[in-house]
Design brief:
Strand 13 and strand 14 form a beta hairpin. Helix 1 (about 55-65) packs across helix 3 (about 90-110), helix 5 runs parallel beside helix 6 (about 160-170) and helix 7 runs parallel beside helix 8 (about 210-220). The chain has two domains: about 1-110, 2-Layer Sandwich (Enolase-like, domain 1); about 115-340, Enolase-like C-terminal domain (TIM Barrel). It is α/β, with parallel strands linked by helices. The strands form four sheets. Strands 4-5-6-7-8-9-10-11 form an eight-stranded parallel beta sheet. A three-stranded antiparallel beta sheet has the order 1-2-3. The longest helix is centred in the first third of the chain and has 19 residues, at about 90-110. The protein has helices at about 55-65, 75-85, 90-110, 110-115, 135-145, 160-170, 185-195, 210-220, 250-255, 260-270, 285-290, 335-340, and strands spanning about 1-15, 20-35, 40-45, 130, 150-155, 175-180, 200-205, 225-230, 245-250, 275-280, 300, 315, 315-320, 320-325, 335. It has twelve helices and 15 strands. Bound molecules: magnesium ion. Magnesium ion binds near residues 180 and 204.
């Protein structure tokens, strides 16, 4: 198998602001693997939170390229070798894992969901994320999204209550919120209790990623489900979180690919946790790869491609909020020109 990669610049529709960071442009890396005339595509969306950027990803991909052997069906071995060599480069590993799944699907001429044994009718609706901004700007973004049945509102500011009140005034959509680890336990209890008035579906990552004691304390006291994102990357992280939350948010860029993500879904289910599938700021390529797993989850937040102005790919569609998987073999993402 022959691996090449290319860094792409993605322009965001709106400045993407969370309680931690803000950006207008993202640099992701597309990974292409050729095998017996078949091309597999994968994507890495590096995250500064995990000390990654397009350069560290490219370097990891160059190193992985030297190790790749010639059997794309040996996925288990490939994924575990990458994990041992590059534990910190989950986004790069995700790109390779995706590209190889894409090759296998294309060689067998089946869409990825079929390879995984999943029913494409069972995809959930996805939320669309509204980043932090002045309240009027956040309201304007919500009005632009009037077809979206579920909104995910970023919080973690002094004005959290005002934001949710203002959005609830103009929208009847389901609202979930994400504090990105910005609250203390007491503050979270106060805010979550007050937010109940606005009919919140769940709260994502209220406290610091490693504040498990605070999360345990909070879980006993709130009536709104808590879903953890920053606290969980891989399956081995999940057992310690059972008493800390009601669910976990799985992302390919944290897990290092589809294979580990699938394992995480089963581990979470076995432990009685709900499962959410999320994404970073990713094009339709990586979002479509994740969407193939979505028939297995309770909540989807697969909106990365909807936040990008110059998405070079098309794949999964969002119709009335529901994820509609492509029927093409493999991941089924094609360059936007091919898709037309
Ligand atoms: Mg989150």
């Amino acid at each position: 198998m022959e691996l090449t990669h290319e860094t792409i610049s993605l322009k965001l529709r709106h400045t993407f602001r969370t309680s931690r960071e803000a950006s207008d442009v993202r640099r992701n890396v597309v990974c292409k693997i050729q095998h017996q005339g078949v091309e597999g595509l994968g994507e890495a969306a590096p995250s500064t939170y995990y000390n990654q950027d397009a350069q560290t990803v490219s370097k990891a991909l160059d190193d992985i390229a030297l190790k790749l052997k010639d059997d794309p069906f040996a996925l288990e071995g490939i994924v575990s070798e990458m994990w041992h060599l590059f534990p910190g480069e989950a986004a790069a590993r995700a790109a390779v894992d995706m590209a190889i799944h894409d090759i296998v699907g294309k060689m067998l001429d089946v869409p990825l969901y079929r390879l995984l044994g999943l029913d494409p009718q069972k995809t959930p609706q996805t939320s669309v994320t509204v980043g932090l901004d002045d309240i009027e700007v956040m309201q304007k973004k919500v009005l632009e999204l009037d077809q979206a049945p579920i909104l995910k509102i970023k919080l973690g500011t002094q004005g959290d209550m005002d934001i949710v009140r203002a959005i609830r005034q103009i929208s009847t959509a389901t609202i979930r919120v994400d504090a990105n680890a910005a609250w203390t336990a007491r503050e979270a209890l106060e805010k979550i209790s007050a937010l109940m008035e606005y009919d919140i579906e769940f709260v994502e990552q209220p406290l610091a990623a490693d504040d498990l004691e605070g999360l345990r304390w909070l879980k006993k006291r709130v009536k709104v489900p808590i879903v953890l994102d920053e606290s969980v990357r891989i399956a081995a992280d999940i057992p310690a979180l059972v008493d800390c939350a009601h669910g976990i948010n799985i992302k390919l860029m944290k897990s290092g690919g589809l294979r580990e993500a699938l394992g995480m879904i089963h581990v979470a289910r076995a432990l009685g946790l709900r499962v959410m599938l999320g994404c970073m700021l990713e094009t339709s390529l990586a979002v479509t790869a994740a969407a193939h797993l979505s028939p297995l989850v309770d909540y989807a937040d697969l909106d990365g491609h909807l936040l990008i102005e110059n998405d070079p790919y098309s794949g999964v569609d969002v119709v009335g909020g529901k994820l509609v998987l492509p029927q093409r073999p493999g991941i089924g993402a094609v360059t936007s020109a091919e898709g037309r």
